[in-house]
Design brief:
Helix 1 crosses helix 2 and helix 9 runs parallel beside helix 11. By secondary structure, this protein is mainly alpha-helical. Strand 1 and strand 2 form a beta hairpin. The mean pLDDT is 89. The two termini are 50 Å apart. Strands 1-2 form a two-stranded antiparallel ribbon.
């Protein structure tokens, strides 16, 4: 997984060198990945349709051999070989998509951490810089590497910075020092050294007049809570309007419902599928609301592409069915 994370991050950076806009880079990169995986998805769809076509025969065998599980398994395997289908034929693209999803999450989280450290250190050593020149924006989102939410600051806050690994601080500061952006590189020996720097340097600067305006909550909305359990604030310089998290939920539900319409399944499978819809919907909301907007953008674009792909596959197979029906009519 680490290799895949590094590979994806390297490819994103290489593509950005050409496009020079991270939001557009993520959109293009997402579409390219989907295009690469599309032949597998098409094969998976064919396999799903074939499995649906043999469903009546499978049910007949299940009824006939309901008291002999060993015989039933044998007959089902014979049926699969005869019809040229596999019950696992539609799983590979789903597994690949999930692997890429989690790899993208870790790759973009790694890159977000690098960007946040670079933004803080550059501003710390150059407080006269307009911080808007340090961030990567996207329409309503001020900083692509912070969550798309009015509950998140657009400049990195103490909490986001202290979650970054100490080695990232060392590596990014070394690059900034080499580029002349900061006087010298940091050299943390371990996380304890980094946390001491957070306490002695980061927190005082974040509370200073130069930085505080970018992490200050709206008066009266700085200590809200839900049932006294979840605490949050609405910031004057919030990073977004929660658009991508909402879109992730809507597109996730539409995509999975569209997928269910194209499958014939028994009631138990349908119940499991509905459960998965809500599990994936909760995951999309949690990850897209809690982590950087770059990953939320990837998730939304990925879902929109999947919806368009499903619609395209539907039209393609409908056309194939019409051709087959016409050929049968003329005796071909």
């Amino acid at each position: 997984m680490n290799f895949l994370n590094s590979l994806l991050l390297t490819l994103i950076k290489a593509l950005h060198a050409v496009i020079n806009n991270y939001a557009l880079t993520i959109i293009v990169f997402t579409i390219l990945i989907k295009l690469v995986v599309m032949p597998l998805n098409l094969k998976s769809r064919r396999s799903t349709m074939r499995m649906a076509s043999v469903q009546p025969k499978m049910q007949a065998l299940q009824e006939k051999y309901k008291d002999d599980q060993e015989k039933l398994n044998q007959k089902l395997q014979e049926l699969y070989r005869k019809e040229g289908v596999s019950p696992m034929g539609g799983c590979l693209p789903m597994i690949i998509s999930m692997v890429i999803l989690f790899a993208m999450f870790y790759a973009l989280r790694t890159f977000a951490n690098e960007q946040l450290v670079a933004q803080f250190l550059t501003f710390y050593h150059n407080p006269d810089i307009d911080p808007r020149t340090l961030t990567d924006s996207f329409f309503w989102i001020r900083n692509l590497w912070m969550p798309d939410s009015p509950f998140a600051t657009y400049m990195p806050d103490v909490n986001s910075l202290q979650l970054v690994d100490f080695q990232v601080w060392n590596d990014i500061s070394a690059k900034l020092a080499a580029a002349g952006m900061i006087p010298e590189a940091l050299a943390f020996a371990d996380r304890n050294a980094m946390m001491a720097y957070i306490t002695d340097v980061v927190k005082p600067f974040v509370a200073s007049a130069a930085y505080a305006p970018y992490v200050t909550p709206v008066t009266g909305l700085g200590d809200l809570s839900i049932l006294g359990l979840i605490r949050f604030s609405i910031y004057k310089e919030g990073n977004g309007w929660f658009v991508l998290p909402v879109l992730s939920v809507v597109t996730q539900i539409l995509m999975q419902k569209l997928t269910m319409q194209n499958q014939q399944m028994d009631p138990s499978q349908a119940g499991t599928q509905k459960t998965m819809i809500w599990v994936m919907t909760f995951m999309s909301l949690y990850f897209c609301a809690s982590y950087n907007a770059a990953f939320a953008l990837y998730w939304v674009v990925s879902n929109i592409y999947a919806i368009a792909e499903q619609i395209g596959f539907n039209k393609y197979f409908e056309q194939q069915d019409r051709k087959a029906a016409k050929a049968e009519e003329v005796g071909i």
